[in-house]
């Protein structure tokens, strides 16, 4: 994306004014780092910061007609420029730029040419013959644009707020699908599709027509003279974009220049749902896949930069923009200048989970219309500015003008979500690409539940943001929020925190008015909140706020977007997902089990985060979010009657939580029964709770000054269930073996601090003991731990099944100990023997 700035009729043609315009234009240089240009005609200035995508050699701006009487500065891409050139056979073009047609079209057709453009654009056109000017923005508002007015009567146009907010008395977002003409001095809409009136359409659903329309939308966006790729989250929308791109790339001009193998990019917290799904799709399509990790702290550190570039204080936009902002920087560092992305599908097809509660097809359709009309304030703003911050362009085929018209003309009855008929969200899009002969995607990806981008990168991302805001915004500040921020008053500490940062950068009243507000749940409009009475008590834009719909929906203790403070205290912000047992993993675990595969029990990924000092085991009991034991509060212990067929275990020091009897075997058997999926989910949730809460000391071993408490309690009725754990000061190791005919083990090292040497030796001893030991139900298990430098790496889990592998790593950010490699810790043999004896005793 380029950056444009225009000052029109400022009554000042001095050199000082030109210098000031250049200074303001440089604020947009991140959008266009390739070249800068400025044109002055009297008291009118047109400045441009170019990101060269098409014709990098000669397409510098501003652009002109033959006699240079008509001047244009443009941000965008015109996909049908070759067709338009052919229609302008009497004109001579100075460059090969796709935007070069705009000046000539105006010369030929006047102000009515805008609807002829197929693409994304924001432009200012100056006609020096009569000193008139024309400003226009694309149909949906994919490119960002603002308009302002100065006290001297000047009109200002800028791609971003930062280009004009210091100079204008009033400014606002330039509405999409509109043009502004100086000849009449007002805005008028040039884009008037049938759906805009919100009349209910009646066209029957034609899956092949829908498929062809979207394929055409993707293909036309392969127009590029620079390296490009696709953003791939592993969800339906981005996966379809990647699939179609890889299918049709070979015959394009871009493939001749840059090769026919597609590059794909994904970002997330380590272990997030998106990373895993994206990798699977990339492998299926054969793309060159690039996976970028970030931690919660990385994201928090970038928040101020994100708000400065995105220019909003909207909570959901900031949540989603931050990972995209970080990923865009990585992508640009690889030499890529353009990416194709999947924004817009959820608005068109009602893909957000709150659409499950749409009362009828009329309300469903009207809500999709409202969502599309507001895209320029949310997802389009995010996709445009988060990528442009690093000189990267994002193209969004779902918002292709022709495709939107096709999709929005379908009878909304086909879009309605009807689980009893097997129709989940965006069913008509999934069905259109469900090709048995030449499949576009694996079935489970094609029918994967919707994840909002800010959720899919890792649920602990949002939880970490809330925890961080809670540390910086106190209750007294919230009490006075309505007086400090009377417009769009923040209702959560997270919103208050973002608002404070925004006001530092953009203190003008016009700036705060440019950001939308209103109640929202799971990204709904305020109108749709009324669909479910319970939603008004849980106003949070995350998809997990759709209680009763999302597989990992928030529990009752989440009120008004705030989590229990004790829960928040359990989320360390220093190492991202490594420090928080993600709800995403519990969700993925349960979803897999419900699909009917018994192997899922052996593939579950739990993470046990050890405390920096010993804490009572009973503190681990309590209610959890979506069955995730990591977020339990110590104030509400679990009683034995909460777990079916449970026994209560205890020792001299602690009252322990109930232990399941044969629960893993029952869950594994039920995984074979597809008709009992709902009951199985409940069993799996109980198993995860009970497994975490199971504590029964068997032996105590003292090694190198660290007291390690070793426990091993196999289930009484399930021969394939065994539990072993070693806890110590600043050390927590968890080995969990369960499942029917299969076993899984999870190892997590956290906060080793000064016991690093003891921890490494203990880990080695545990690994060797478990490899050699024979315990009930675990005769073929093998766990290998390995340390690389100061990074503790837990890898290579094999239990006789090659398909089960665990690969996880944790950067502990520890400083090296002197002579660390030279000091061989003694006592490991004794520890190994003791550990083996405990296993044999069982």
TrEMBL record:
Molecular function terms, GO-annotated: asparagine synthase (glutamine-hydrolyzing) activity; ATP binding
Catalytic activity: L-aspartate + L-glutamine + ATP + H2O = L-asparagine + L-glutamate + AMP + diphosphate + H(+)
Region: Disordered, residue numbers: 600-655
Protein name stated in the entry: asparagine synthase (glutamine-hydrolyzing)
Pfam hit, one: Asn_synthase
GO CC list: cytosol
Entry EC no(s): 6.3.5.4
Pathway(s) the chain acts in: Amino-acid biosynthesis; L-asparagine biosynthesis; L-asparagine from L-aspartate (L-Gln route): step 1/1
Keywords: Amino-acid biosynthesis, Asparagine biosynthesis, ATP-binding, Coiled coil, Glutamine amidotransferase, Ligase, Nucleotide-binding
Domain Glutamine amidotransferase type-2: 2-185
Positions in coiled-coil regions: 742-772
Enzyme class name: ligase
CDD domains in UniProt: Asn_synthase_B_C, AsnB
Composition bias type Polar residues, residue spans: 630-644
Biological process according to GO: asparagine biosynthetic process; response to stress
């Amino acid at each position: 994306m380029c950056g444009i700035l225009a000052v029109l009729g400022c009554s000042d043609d001095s050199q000082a004014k030109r210098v000031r315009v250049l200074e303001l234009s440089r604020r947009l240089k991140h959008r266009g780092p390739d070249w800068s240009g400025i044109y002055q005609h009297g008291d009118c200035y047109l400045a441009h910061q170019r990101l060269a995508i098409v014709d990098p050699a000669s397409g510098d701006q501003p652009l002109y007609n033959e006699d240079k009487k008509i001047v244009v500065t443009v941000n965008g891409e015109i996909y049908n420029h070759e067709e338009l050139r052919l229609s302008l056979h009497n004109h001579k073009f100075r460059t090969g730029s796709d935007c070069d047609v705009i000046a000539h079209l105006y010369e030929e057709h006047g102000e009515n040419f805008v609807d002829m453009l197929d693409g994304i654009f924001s432009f200012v056109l100056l006609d020096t013959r009569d000193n008139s000017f024309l400003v226009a923005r694309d149909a949906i508002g994919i490119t960002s644009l603002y308009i302002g007015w100065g006290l001297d009567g000047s009109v200002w146009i800028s791609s971003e707020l930062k280009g004009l907010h210091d100079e204008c008395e009033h400014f606002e977002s330039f509405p999409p699908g509109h043009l502004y003409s100086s000849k009449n001095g007002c805005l008028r809409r040039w884009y008037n599709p049938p759906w805009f009136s919100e009349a209910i359409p009646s066209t029957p659903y034609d899956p092949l027509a829908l498929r062809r329309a979207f394929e055409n939308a993707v293909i036309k966006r392969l127009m590029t003279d620079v390296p490009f790729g696709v953003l791939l989250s592993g969800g339906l929308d981005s996966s379809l974009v990647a699939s179609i791109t890889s299918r049709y790339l070979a015959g394009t001009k871009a493939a001749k220049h840059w090769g026919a193998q597609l590059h794909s990019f994904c970002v997330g917290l380590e272990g997030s749902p998106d990373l895993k799904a994206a990798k699977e799709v990339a492998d299926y399509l054969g793309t060159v896949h690039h996976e970028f990790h970030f931690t919660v702290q990385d994201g928090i550190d970038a928040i101020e930069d994100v708000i400065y570039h995105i220019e909003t204080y909207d909570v959901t936009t900031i949540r989603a923009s931050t990972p995209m902002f970080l990923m865009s920087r990585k992508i640009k560092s690889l030499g890529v200048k353009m990416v194709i992305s999947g924004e817009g599908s959820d608005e068109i097809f009602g893909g957000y989970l709150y659409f499950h509660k749409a009362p009828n097809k009329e309300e469903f359709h009207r809500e999709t219309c409202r969502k599309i009309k507001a895209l320029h304030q949310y997802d389009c703003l995010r996709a445009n500015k988060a990528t442009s911050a690093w000189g990267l362009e994002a193209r969004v085929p779902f918002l292709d003008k022709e495709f939107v018209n096709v999709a929005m003309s379908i009878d909304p009855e086909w879009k309605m979500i009807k689980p009893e008929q097997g129709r989940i969200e965006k069913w008509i899009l999934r069905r259109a690409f469900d090709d048995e002969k030449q499949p576009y995607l694996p079935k489970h990806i094609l029918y994967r539940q919707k994840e909002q981008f800010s959720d899919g990168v890792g649920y602990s991302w949002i939880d970490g943001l809330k925890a961080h805001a809670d540390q910086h915004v106190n209750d007294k500040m919230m009490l006075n929020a309505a007086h400090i921020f009377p417009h769009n008053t923040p209702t959560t500490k997270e919103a208050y925190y973002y608002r404070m940062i925004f006001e530092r950068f953009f203190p003008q009243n016009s700036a705060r008015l440019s950001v939308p507000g209103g109640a929202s749940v799971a990204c709904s409009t305020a109108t749709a909140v009324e669909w479910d009475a319970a939603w008004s008590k849980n106003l949070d834009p995350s998809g997990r706020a759709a209680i009763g719909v999302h597989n990992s929906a928030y529990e009752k203790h989440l009120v008004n977007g705030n989590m229990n403070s004790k829960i928040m205290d359990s989320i360390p912000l220093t190492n991202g997902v490594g420090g928080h047992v993600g709800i995403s993993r519990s969700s993925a675990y349960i979803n897999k089990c419900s699909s009917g595969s018994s192997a899922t029990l052996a593939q579950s990924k739990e993470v046990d985060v050890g405390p920096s000092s010993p804490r009572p085991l009973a503190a681990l009991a309590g209610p959890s979010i979506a069955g995730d034991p990591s977020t339990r509060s110590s104030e509400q212990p679990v009683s034995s009657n909460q777990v079916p067929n449970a026994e209560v275990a205890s020792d001299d020091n602690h009252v322990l939580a109930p232990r399941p009897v044969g629960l893993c075997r029952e869950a594994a058997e039920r995984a074979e029964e597809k008709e009992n999926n709902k009951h199985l989910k409940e069993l799996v949730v109980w198993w995860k709770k009970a497994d975490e809460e199971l504590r029964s000391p068997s032996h105590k071993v003292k090694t190198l000054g660290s007291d390690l408490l070793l426990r091993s309690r196999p289930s009484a009725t399930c021969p394939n269930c065994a539990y072993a754990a070693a806890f110590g000061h600043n050390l927590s190791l968890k080995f969990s073996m369960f499942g029917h005919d299969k076993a899984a083990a999870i190892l997590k090292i956290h906060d080793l601090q000064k016991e690093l040497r003891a921890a490494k030796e203990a880990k080695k001893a545990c690994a060797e003991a478990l490899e050699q030991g024979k315990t009930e139900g675990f005769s073929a298990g093998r766990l290998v731990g390995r340390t690389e430098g100061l990074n503790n790496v837990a890898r290579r889990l094999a239990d006789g099944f090659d398909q089960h592998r665990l690969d996880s790593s944790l950067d502990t950010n520890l400083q090296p100990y002197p002579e660390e490699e030279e000091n061989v810790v003694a006592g490991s043999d004794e520890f190994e023997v003791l550990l083996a004896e405990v296993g044999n005793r069982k």
